[in-house]
Design goal:
The protein is α+β, with helices and mostly antiparallel strands. It has one domain. It is 29% helix and 26% strand. The chain has six helices and nine strands, in the order αββββααββββαααβ. The strands form two sheets. A seven-stranded antiparallel β-sheet has the order 2-3-4-8-7-6-5. A two-stranded antiparallel sheet has the order 1-9. The longest helix has 20 residues. The protein is globular.
Length: 241
């Protein structure tokens, strides 16, 4: 097969990208929609996304974006179930099929792009539908080590699927919650930091678990907060055609 024919065959085999529109007016920013090429998978703990549609909000920054991935492209990019991508998709499908109560879910909530850290917080969970799809939104935080959370560590995320199962939607946006300290080492967190640095493994474990439970209860109280529901409004405006 000639190089041209091979290239043509590869392009034809790639899932087509949809047309994506979203109303960013609730965020008082401009949304920019782009098609991005796949990143070749390499060795190392990093997520290598397939060809996708990305929507950025305002000045281009990490974690102010909505990505629409063809599910077939995700699975082609990560064919090995050990790569966790299939697990995230299957977990989201099961969650949306059952619409399980938040307190009935055990373990981590579905999340793409893959995070190579522990999901230490999932709070303010709500199921949100958009035209032609549905998903779940929540506040999320990841940690590679045990340390109190600052407001820069907690994000709003929406993880969803189109009803035909062809496209996976991931929306991540800073929550910027004033309820959390600007600095993880703020005085309010001193007792937690002291316990974590005490050298007493049991004390550190007990304090850390109690801290995370307290944070979850506090942030669960924001489920209907306007700062989150305005982001829900953005999700509800999503059109994938």
């Amino acid at each position: 097969m000639s190089s041209l024919l091979l290239l043509t065959a590869l392009v034809a085999a790639q899932p087509s990208l949809p047309r994506v529109t979203v109303d960013a007016r609730p965020l008082v920013v401009t949304a920019t929609v782009r098609e991005l090429p796949a990143r070749p998978v390499e060795e190392g703990p990093e997520f290598y996304p397939p060809r996708r549609v990305r929507v950025t909000f305002g000045p281009q920054q990490d974690w102010r974006e909505l990505n629409v991935y063809p599910v077939a492209a995700l699975l082609a990019q990560y064919p090995d179930s050990r790569d966790r991508v299939r697990g995230q998709i299957d977990a989201l499908k099961g969650l949306l099929r059952q619409r399980a109560a938040p307190n009935a879910v055990r373990g981590e909530w579905p999340f793409l792009p893959l995070a190579f850290a522990a999901q230490v917080l999932a709070a303010s969970v709500r199921y949100v539908d958009f035209d032609g799809g549905r998903g779940v939104r929540y506040l999320v935080a990841y940690r590679q080590d045990a340390a109190p959370l600052s407001r820069d560590d907690v994000y709003y995320t929406f993880q969803g699927l189109t009803n035909d199962g062809r496209h996976y939607v991931s929306f991540v946006y800073p929550a910027s919650l004033a309820e959390l300290p600007k600095d993880a080492f703020a005085p309010a967190n001193k007792s937690v930091m002291d316990a974590l640095a005490s050298g007493d493994a049991q004390r550190a474990k007990t304090t850390w678990e109690a801290y995370l439970s307290r944070m979850k209860r506090q942030l669960d109280g924001l489920t209907n907060d306007a700062r989150l529901t305005r982001l829900d409004t953005v999700v509800k405006s999503l059109l994938i055609r």
